[in-house]
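Hello forum,

I keep getting stuck at the same step: I have a sequence, I want structure tokens, and every attempt I make locally crashes halfway through. Rather than fight my setup again tonight, could one of you with a working pipeline run this one for me? It's a single chain of 246 residues.
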Amino acid sequence: MAAGPGITPRAPGSPRRAGRSQRNYPHLVAHALQLELVDVTYSGATTAHVLYESQHGAPPQVEALRGDEVLVTVTIGGNDIGYVPALMAASLPRRARQLPVLGAKLREMLDPAARERALLRLESSLRAVGEVVRRKAPEAQVLFVDYLTLLPPAGTPAPPLRDEDADLGRYLAARLQTATAATGCDLVPVADASTEHHAWSAVPWTVGARLPVPRLFGGGAAPFHPNAAGMAAVAQLVVSRVRSPQ
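Reply #2:
Ran it on my machine without issues. Output:
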């Protein structure tokens, strides 16, 4: 989400697999506040990739912290629970769930019990991220930035998603929002601010289902990810929070 996959141009010097945009919210915030930016956002990252696990050769993200930071923003957790993968799986034709190998993976992504098991680990993982970031950047304002609202309210169609799949997505989003708020760090409530700008709205800040999936850059924002307007909106929310701390 935070990397901005598909939003051109790609951040200079960034790994192509990171899907890191020069117009993601970290870049926009740094420009607005005239701060030096170290952007380690990476598409597909989990809390493990933030804390201790390499991702496609990139070191754990907390290793980028030097201790002299004034601001650290964090958007993480969705990949831990398969939030976007579940929505992408649900967007595929139902017959895809019967295909060998792929079908089993798709069914697992959409299995509420499997998602519930992942949710059980989420809150402690997010708290660990907050604790490590505050320890490594003791002078910084640490802001957890939650996820833009992807889905319309219950009862509003979100084709090609079936109602039960959209309900699962809403449930995952709500649990992710709750877990993020429980980290003990300051929260930028992006989800609440974007409820009228879901992917099926007249003025969307995110992209809904897209088939075929576009190339990482040059084909537009990735499905179930922020578009350029969404990134700009998130950046403004972060800047406002920095300038007017609660």
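The helical segments are 25-33, 47-51, 83-91, 102-109, 112-136, 163-181, 190-193, 228-243. If your local run keeps crashing, start a new thread with the error log.
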